[in-house]
Structure formats: C-alpha cells, structure tokens
Amino acid sequence: MKVETLDNGIRVYTLPIEGVKTIGIGIYVNIGSIYEEKDYRGISHFLEHMMFKTNKKYKAHEIDMGLELNGGLANAVTSAHYTLYFFECIKESFNKIVDVLYSIFENSSYIEEEFENEKKVIISEIERCDNDPEEKLYNLVQKSVFGESDYGERIGGSIETIKNITKDILEEFKAKYYSPKNMFIILEGNVGEKEMDTIRKYFSMLEGDDVKLKRPSKDKGRDIYEEMDTKDIIYYAISKDFDLKDLLKAYTLSSIISGGISSKIFQIFRNKYGIGYHVFLEYTLTYPDSFIFTFGVPGFDKEKENKIYDAIDDLLNERITEDYINGRINRLNLKFQKSRNLLFERIPTDAFLIKYFGITYDNLLEIVKKESKNIEDLNKMLKDVFEGYEVWIKPK
C-alpha cells in the first residue's frame, strides 16, 4: 500500500490487488453525527443523500446514469464519526467515473425542490425505523450505552431535527467539513500510476480550510425497556463500550463465537433453546476512541423470555477451546478467500482499518490467528459484554 498527500492536503492510498480487473474507490470524510449540533442532528446523513443530486455539471439523473451505465456501482454510509462514499467500476470507465465523483464533491449548492423532496424521503425513513422494532433496537443500543449525548443520539437524527435543517444550513455544513484537509481517498484493485494521475488532476482542485471538530459529549448509560406492537415477539440486546484499541480483539471474538451453524451462539440459542433466528455478537457502532460491542436477539417468541438468561449462562460457562478456535479459523479462511477480491464489499472495511489501524482487509486473518491464541482474554471480553446495558422491546 502506498500513500501520497496531494497539494491541498488530501491523502490518497493505493492498494493494487493482483487478479482483480475492476477498480474500487473510497472517499472518506471525517464528519459524522457526533460532531453535529444537537438541533441539526442527522445533517451528515442528509448531506450524504444530497451529494447525488443535481450539481453544477450534472443533473441528478445524469449522475445515476453516468455511474451505472459506465460500469460503476455506488453507495454511501454515514456513521457516528465519518461519512464514506464508495464505488467500483471497470477500468475503461475510470476517468469518466472520477469526473462524476469530482463534480459531486466540488459542488457547493443544491436545488430547493430536490432538497425538500429529499427531506420528505428522510423523514419517511425515520418514521419507518421508528415503527420497525428491529431498527428501533439498534437505535436504542446507542442510547443505552451513552445516554442523552452526542455519542448516544442516533445517527439519522429525529423528525424534528431534520425539519430544522434548511438548504442554506446544509450548504454551509458541506463547505465547512468537506474540506480536502478533512478527507482521504482509497484506490484498490487494478490501479496504477495512470489512475493516480487522474485522481491528482481532479481532486487536487478541491479547496477548503482546516477543520476543527467539536469535542462530542458522552453520558452515563442505562437499561431501556419499551413496548411496541410486536405480535408476541421480543427484541433484546445487551451492549458495552470498549476502548477502540480492543476492536480487533472484538472482531476475533465475534468471528469465533458468532456466525454460521457451527458457532456457539447458534448451537446454544437456536439448537438447544430455540431462541431467535438471527442471534449475533458484533461491534455495532464505532467512535474515534471506542466502540459498542453488542449481543443481540432481534426477535424471539415471548414464551422463551425466561430462558434467555439460561442460554446466556450456558454461553459464558462453555469456555472457548483451542480445537474450537482452529475450526472457526478454517471457516473464516474460506470467507476471506471468497471475499478478498470483492472490492465493493471490502472498501468500507479498508477505509476504517487504514484510518485507525494502518492495516487492510488482507491483514485481518493473521490478526485473528494471533488474537485467538489469547483464549483467556477472549473469555474475559465475552463476560464483559454481558455486564453492559440491556435493551428490551416487548409486546404491548
């Protein structure tokens, strides 16, 4: 992996991947919900939507068509502390795709009608999530760990805060935070100096000042109990925050304990107790200094409510063994072999790993092998998760 800093401050990481014919592009902006003003919570996510609307060079439909009809895929995600735009395209269309991407990031104003239409879309999205118990469970996890704070409020904001956002406020937000000094770019796959020249040509033209992010607030967590019309189905999660330096250990533990029919979670919760269809242990949200590690059962019959703690006790008392770990690493190895060249799927992982750990997806398997040797540490982390805060959503 190579890194170059353009004259305007944008860092560009290039990661050639042998045997891959396409090119992956990730554009990481160091802004997310925890840095927003409380009255405008959700503005980062709102801007993510507006980025693909009409700009000075292309109309909204031309952006969509320009990406897809030139052999490109596009997506974006807003997190608590960053926004990521990621793309994959055929090599022959790289220059055209970059031209479209530059127009998106260089643009400074939007059309009022498109802005208001997108506001309605986002409000509908929030209403849908509020009425979906599984979506609500994930949103309440943040609040259960960090309370009423920047860290605890949901990424997409509320209907009230979205209504507060005007087009002028959104444009000012973009001008302030979408500075070249507050972003970096990743190029992966079939990339070389020719592609790097194209990035230099376009993205060196971006302008912007130094960015100062506010210090986000945290608050104490608490257990949360809510009732919804869930048709006799219960939704449950227990979560705890850990220091970000322990994230790779958590990834290892999650890979070993959760996922697939051979996992301890599947064997205990599904096979032994018949609790839930999708039971998981994973880090559900990251922050600049920490992450939330969550055990969740998003949907199980209320008749099994009294059994969930028995199943958790079984999980904690059935200790992780070396033989079990070796088998799970074999499973993970297959997953890595199959997904290593899927650029559109790995770019979000690479962007985060490069930013905070200086590694890429290709390093993860060896890290899991190394971390998995510390069985006692993994067992301790597993127990620590269940000392966290609970979220229960029960039928009315």
Automatic annotation (TrEMBL):
One family name in Pfam for this protein: Peptidase_M16_C
Family matches, as Gene3D superfamilies: Metalloenzyme, LuxS/M16 peptidase-like
Peptidase M16 C-terminal domain location: 164-328
Annotated Peptidase M16 N-terminal domain residues: 21-153
Source organism superkingdom: Archaea
GO molecular function: metal ion binding
Family the UniProt entry places it in: Belongs to the peptidase M16 family.
Protein name: Peptidase M16
UniProt source species: Candidatus Nanoclepta minutus
